[in-house]
Design brief:
- This protein has helices spanning 3-13, 28-36, 47-61, 73-87, 110-116, 130-143, 154-157, 180-192, 207-220, 250-257, 310-321, 331-340, 359-369, 385-390, 411-421, 433-438, 442-449, 464-470, 487-493, 508-515, 535-541, and strands at residues 18-21, 40-43, 65-69, 92-98, 120-123, 147-153, 196-200, 223-226, 240-243, 261-265, 285-290, 304-307, 374-378, 399-400, 426-432, 454-459, 497-501, 522-527.
- It is 37% helix and 17% strand.
- Helix 3 packs parallel to helix 4 (73-87), helix 8 crosses helix 11 and helix 10 (250-257) packs antiparallel against helix 12.
- Strands 2-1-3-4-6-5 form a 6-stranded parallel beta sheet, sandwiched between helices. It has a 6-stranded parallel beta sheet with strand order 9-8-7-10-11-12, with helices on both faces. A 6-stranded parallel beta sheet has the order 14-13-15-16-18-17, with helices on both faces.
- It is built from 21 helices and 18 strands.
- The chain is of the alpha/beta class and 543 residues long.
- It has 3 domains: 3-158, Rossmann fold (3-Layer(aba) Sandwich); 180-341, 3-Layer(aba) Sandwich (Rossmann fold); 348-541, Rossmann fold, CATH 3.40.50.970.
Length: 543
């Protein structure tokens, strides 16, 4: 057995059963070893797409995934996706072959690349340590929620490895309990609050955290919101505000601004989630609960920082809080949420016309047409608020939001990874035309994998965010606008069923596809109204 085979076998034994990548000479053997050990290999058309597929799979499945790339250029091709995963604390192991000769065309400082984007560099250094070092890499990924770059030097990979022995992942660390003094202060603030709001983030995306926060909110009368990345966590709760921040409805934003206590649970309370602080009312106390010390207070000033595991802290607070109180859960608030808690309930002027459809009209109609059991992935751009907020999802696993790096072009690969993690749900990729064309090669991956995916392209023939950012200044916009592109034809070229939508009547093609065998994926080339910024972008840019 070679070292490369020992590494691949060890990864699968430790629970890494999906590996995404583009195979070259340097990662050929380790990838085949994982497949031989029972892992599923998903071939992407570009390493950047493979990285995001792996990231999205791990987030949605709640299990570690692997990315496999060639030495040097294979890794550099993947770095945007790796950066997104690292910033999002995704448990991902990047298997990168490594050129050891400085004269090799593929030679590059791969450790430096990892550190530059926040990933953890590691390396297999010798045959007798290959299994141990691979196990350590997986343990770091899983138990510390980190993206780990495991370098596989070419000269070490081909060496004979010792006879394999069964391996086991070390036991996870005991969840961190909050210090007694911090817990006492948190409980005092919860008892004193009359209008508390909880904002759950990435660190609260678990069944235990959902149950613990729901019970604590009920006890102290708190309203429930999430950051964008945790959308869907409280989908079935009547007291949920949906997403806090730029995506918030006017009703949700007003209720958050009216809070006298805001608690971020596994949530950084950053500029997007708090609208640059404008959602924090005068005199409101701000608390952050997180198990990562460097996350506490990083984004804003806090009245209390609580270091601890989110569900553990919530359970501990509930145990001593006392009798339930009404808090913010009044009949008036419930009525406001029932009539204006969703964007589709907010009255707007339908601006469809001139051969272009209002994106709100489009997305509301799609929300009605598509089955409720769905997993939605959203790319970045001016359009992104519409699918994020007008398409409902059944729970937190129904929404995959790879936006920690704010890169466009990740949405399609995100949808592939999420679709493989939840094959029981209809995958929906919501893209702008810029991101769709940037990632078009992965349309072939969707078709080859046989995914019954709906790809919706909000096509304004521009990089819309830049258009609306600079339009008021009278700047020339030639660099960010493009001639009309028939993206439906591009989709057909890759084997998709495709429809062009300029008005509500054109959505009949979507219904026809949904009612049929769904033998091919569907691409919707939606020519959207493009003469004004989306509401969240206007708010963010101050328009």
């Amino acid at each position: 057995m070679r070292v490369s085979q020992a590494v691949g076998r060890t990864l699968v034994e430790l629970g890494v059963d999906h590996v995404f990548g583009v195979v070259g000479s340097g990662n050929f053997h380790v990838t085949n070893a994982m497949v031989a050990a029972g892992a599923r290999f998903v071939a992407a058309r570009h390493e950047g797409g493979a990285a995001t597929m792996a990231d999205a799979y791990a987030r949605t499945a709640g299990a570690p995934a692997a990315l496999t790339v060639h030495q040097g250029c294979g890794l550099t091709n993947a770095m945007t996706g790796v950066a997104e995963a690292a910033k999002s604390r995704t448990p991902l192991v990047v298997l990168a072959a490594e050129a050891t000769s400085p004269t090799s065309n593929f030679a590059v400082d791969q450790d430096a690349l990892a550190r530059a984007v926040g990933a953890v560099p590691a390396r297999v250094t010798a045959p007798e340590r290959a299994v141990e070092e691979t196990t350590a890499a997986v343990a770091t990924a899983v138990h510390q929620r980190r993206t780990v770059l495991l370098n596989l030097p070419l000269d070490v990979q081909d060496l004979p490895a010792p006879a394999p022995e069964p391996v086991r992942l070390p036991a996870p660390p005991v969840p961190a309990e909050p210090p007694a003094e911090e817990l006492d202060r948190l409980v005092d603030l919860l008892r004193a609050a009359r209008r508390p709001v909880f904002v759950a983030g990435r660190g609260a995306r678990s069944a235990h955290a959902k149950a613990a926060l729901g019970a604590l909110a009920h006890r102290c009368g708190a309203l429930l919101a999430t950051s964008a990345v945790a959308k869907g966590l409280f989908h079935d709760d009547a007291w949920a505000l949906d997403v806090s921040g730029g995506f918030s409805t006017p009703v949700a934003a007003d209720l958050i601004r009216g809070a006298d206590l805001i608690v971020g649970w596994g949530c950084s309370l950053n500029m997007w989630t708090m609208r640059h602080g404008r959602l924090i009312g005068e005199g409101a106390a701000v608390v952050q609960v997180d198990d990562t010390p460097e996350a506490l207070g990083r984004q804003r000033r806090l009245d209390l920082a609580v270091l601890g595991d989110v569900p553990t802290a919530a359970d501990a607070a509930l145990a001593v809080l006392g009798a339930p109180v009404t808090g913010y859960r009044t009949p008036e608030v419930l009525d406001r949420l029932a009539t204006g808690g969703r964007w589709r309930d907010v009255p707007v002027e339908d601006r469809t016309g001139g051969g272009r459809i209002d994106p709100r009209t489009l997305t509301t109609a799609l929300d009605d047409l598509l089955p409720a059991e769905r997993v939605v992935a959203v790319d970045s751009g001016n359009f992104m608020g519409y699918p994020s907020m007008f398409l409902s999802v059944p729970d937190e696993q129904g929404f995959c939001f790879t936006q920690a790096f704010q890169s466009i072009g990740l949405g399609l690969a995100t949808a592939v990874g999420a679709a493989l993690a939840r094959p029981d749900r209809l995958p929906v990729a919501a893209l702008g035309d810029g991101g769709a064309l940037m990632a078009a090669a992965e349309l072939e991956t969707v078709r080859r994998l046989g995914l019954p995916m709906v790809v919706v392209v909000y096509n304004d023939d521009a990089y819309g965010a830049e258009v609306h950012h600079f339009a008021d200044a009278g700047e020339p916009l030639d660099t960010v606008t493009f001639p009309p592109t028939d993206i439906a034809a591009v989709g057909r070229g890759y084997g998709f069923t495709a429809v062009t939508v300029r008005g509500p009547g054109d959505l009949a093609g979507v219904r026809q596809w949904l009612d049929g065998p769904r033998a091919t994926p569907l691409l919707v080339d939606a020519k959207v109204v493009a003469d004004e910024p989306s509401w969240w972008l206007a708010e963010a840019f101050g328009h």
